[in-house]
Amino acid sequence: MDVNEKDAIFNYRRKYLPTQQVAYHTPPRFPLDVIESIREGASLLFRSLGLRDFARIDGWFLPSAVNVSAYSGNRIGRSKYGTVLFTDINLISGMEQTSFLFQQASKVGFSHSNILRSIIHHACSRYRNITMCDTTSSLLKGSKSSELTKGNDAKKVFVIFGGDTSERQVSLMSGTNVWLNLQAFDDIDIVPCLLAPNNVNHLSTYSDEKEDVRSRAVWLLPYSLVLRHTAEEVLDACMEAIEPARAAFTSKLRNQVMNEILEGLAKQHWFSGFDIDDELPEACTIGQWIKLAKEAKATVFVAVHGGIGEDGTLQSLLEDEKIPYTGPGAAASKICMDKVTTSLALNHLSSSGILTINKDVWKREEILNTPLHDIWNSLTLKLQCQTLCVKPSRDGCSTGVARLCCADDLAMYAKALKDSLLRIPPNVLSKPHGMIEMPSPPPEYLIFEPFIETDEVVVSSRSTNEGRGPLVWKGRSRWVEITVGVIGKRGSMHSLSPSITVKEKGDILSLEEKFQGGTGINLTPPPSSIISAECLDKCKLRIELVANTLQLEGFSRVDAFLNVDSGEVLVIEVNTVPGMTPSTVLIHQVNLANTVSLFIS
């Protein structure tokens, strides 16, 4: 693990939210002697402390010119390269999909199910009266990433994720979740594919400023390389896997560890072997990838958030080759990608209770070259408001979204644009707020809107003095923020149950609250004390009208404000490639509506 900032603390955010603030390397980029020292020390700790089944041991490697011969006695943890210092033992390690347990296990031949079954079997072996059923046949099913392990009748699905937008890390989380879940279906053979960042294209020699999309690089990934925390880590792992010296080193280490495991489990009748092969990633261009998909008669599951994955570009390329794909078509995607165009397409629905937010669009260069007090006065006069919401015109995941209460706030935001800051620290604007992730590179166009005041919904861990429950809602403005999934065919989209989004820090939903597990709060279904059944029905009908007007199909997500009295909907934006992470509210809504089979189809 590398922390990229000097004197930075490896805090909760860096640990559990995928960003480029931290990079992980599996296996580590240490000499073999150091890795052996780490493994020996961890094994000694495991035995000495009487640990069982599994654990995760954390520590530091401190490079130094240590003279090992100067030490007597136990030399574990010391080598000519430095010292290994163990600092923490986790008896129950993290179990998220790309956690170190699964990431490291996959490098030595264990799929998620195999390592978990092995842990369970090992625990049961201590009790002679417990008999485990034979799981050998199901264990090996659907584990390998690129080899054809399923029958010839299985439908090929290419799930593509990554890219180079500010949403690429969420895209990786979405794609990984889709890939892992669809493996459970015998009739689906799914292949994970990384759309490489455009600024790291190892295949294209195209030099024109206008990107030739077909020359963009795509990597077909083996199982273990999907389990990384960022798109950059996946790409780095691909490059390492095809670099001869590094590949030989990794293969040697893998074989050594696997042989030790086989030797240690030789007498355990329940161990049926490894189920992940040491496969190499395959690189191709988008043009070649589309050809592969066509030859395989594959369906493409689009999980690329933003950029060419959501603006209709990828959809258009797939349509040209008559390759089926998930989500709305190219035309609808192009409209919804642009927030201004989306509003214009819905303006005529105001008489139906569907409203849009007034907008004013500015070029970044205009903001940087115009007196900021003049801009502030112009915006507040034109939009008839005292506070503003600023956002990039073509970004998502709350990237670059901020509440501005005065000209000084605008100046701070403009400085972040000018300096190409990756993030605005918490609470530097006039009202309290969390970390604001900024788009990189800075956006060409920015949208200014009136900031919509909604009623704060507070989820408390204790009851109030009045004896009320943990949900506190004062209901003054009568507007709440909602997010709603829609699924179905073009022209007959079905609205799922809306979820009320609860902001824990500041006025804008943060990246953590949207996608970091155990962080954000969504109320699904919305409590009847806030939204009545009658209002809920009106809301769903209006959301369906929005979806059908925009010609959505497959599945999408509509973010909006809802008036809890009239049922009027004020549309914020429409996501044609919504997040599909384990924390995604869309999954909760599908489960609530008992429409899982419809959603999958």
Automatic annotation (TrEMBL):
<dbReference type="Pfam" id="PF01820">
    <property type="entry name" value="Dala_Dala_lig_N"/>
</dbReference>
<dbReference type="GO" id="GO:0009507">
    <property type="term" value="C:chloroplast"/>
</dbReference>
<keyword id="KW-0573">Peptidoglycan synthesis</keyword>
<dbReference type="InterPro" id="IPR013815">
    <property type="entry name" value="ATP_grasp_subdomain_1"/>
</dbReference>
<keyword id="KW-0133">Cell shape</keyword>
<dbReference type="GO" id="GO:0005524">
    <property type="term" value="F:ATP binding"/>
</dbReference>
<keyword id="KW-0961">Cell wall biogenesis/degradation</keyword>
<dbReference type="InterPro" id="IPR011095">
    <property type="entry name" value="Dala_Dala_lig_C"/>
</dbReference>
<dbReference type="GO" id="GO:0008716">
    <property type="term" value="F:D-alanine-D-alanine ligase activity"/>
</dbReference>
<keyword id="KW-0436">Ligase</keyword>
<dbReference type="Pfam" id="PF07478">
    <property type="entry name" value="Dala_Dala_lig_C"/>
</dbReference>
<comment type="similarity">
    <text>Belongs to the D-alanine--D-alanine ligase family.</text>
</comment>
<dbReference type="InterPro" id="IPR016185">
    <property type="entry name" value="PreATP-grasp_dom_sf"/>
</dbReference>
<feature type="domain" description="ATP-grasp">
    <location>
        <begin position="546"/>
        <end position="601"/>
    </location>
</feature>
<dbReference type="InterPro" id="IPR000291">
    <property type="entry name" value="D-Ala_lig_Van_CS"/>
</dbReference>
<dbReference type="InterPro" id="IPR011761">
    <property type="entry name" value="ATP-grasp"/>
</dbReference>
<protein>
    <recommendedName>
        <fullName>ATP-grasp domain-containing protein</fullName>
    </recommendedName>
</protein>
<dbReference type="GO" id="GO:0071555">
    <property type="term" value="P:cell wall organization"/>
</dbReference>
<keyword id="KW-0547">Nucleotide-binding</keyword>
<dbReference type="GO" id="GO:0046872">
    <property type="term" value="F:metal ion binding"/>
</dbReference>
<keyword id="KW-0067">ATP-binding</keyword>
<dbReference type="InterPro" id="IPR011127">
    <property type="entry name" value="Dala_Dala_lig_N"/>
</dbReference>
<dbReference type="GO" id="GO:0008360">
    <property type="term" value="P:regulation of cell shape"/>
</dbReference>
